[in-house]
Amino acid sequence: MIATSLNPLFFCLAAITSSAPIPQINIAKNETNTPIEKRAYTGRASYFTPSFGACGTISNEDEMVVALPISLYQAKAKTTNNVSGYCGKHVKVSWGGKSTTATVVDKGMLGESDLDLSPAAFQALGSLDHGVLENVQWNFVD
């Protein structure tokens, strides 16, 4: 009687412990095995007032700079000083038929595919009156 009740359990466990590889998935884009630097992202863009950023540089509103989502920034953080390997990298941002390129200088409390742009970078895409731009496409260019 016990053996009969264990058979379905055995088959469930066998299915769960299968040796098939589990693909790596980027939740934001549902892409598999694509390096972060090669992915295309779609998210929102807001703007912020740059100052002393997490990358250790001082920026101002007139510079073309960007803050990455904290989760992405930390994905490539260096252990000695917690500065991301993305610092200084360039991001191409597109919205409404316009594009601009900005340099990573900071991190922000953003959604996985969202960006914070300096006012100068934001205005290259749209008016500050928008506040937030929806469906912004962006990717690393170096």
Task: Please describe what this structure looks like.
The chain is of the alpha+beta class. It has one domain (40-140): RlpA-like domain (Barwin-like endoglucanases, Beta Barrel), CATH 2.40.40. The protein is 18% helix and 31% strand. It contains three helices and eight strands, in the order αββββαβββαβ. The chain has helices spanning 2-16, 70-75, 119-123, and strands at residues 25-26, 31-32, 41-47, 65-69, 90-95, 98-108, 115-117, 133-140. It has a six-stranded mixed β-barrel. A two-stranded antiparallel ribbon has the order 1-2. A hairpin with a 4-residue loop joins β1 (25-26) and β2 (31-32). The protein is globular and about 40 Å long. The relative contact order is 0.23.
Please provide a brief summary of the model:
By secondary structure, this protein is α+β, with helices and mostly antiparallel strands.
Kindly list the characteristics that best describe this protein.
alpha+beta, 142 residues, six-stranded mixed β-barrel, 3 helices, Barwin-like endoglucanases, two-stranded antiparallel sheet
Secondary-structure topology with pairs:
Layout: H1 2-16, E1 25-26, E2 31-32, E3 41-47, E4 65-69, H2 70-75, E5 90-95, E6 98-108, E7 115-117, H3 119-123, E8 133-140
Parallel strand pairs: 3-7, 4-6
Antiparallel strand pairs: 1-2, 3-8, 4-7, 5-6, 5-8
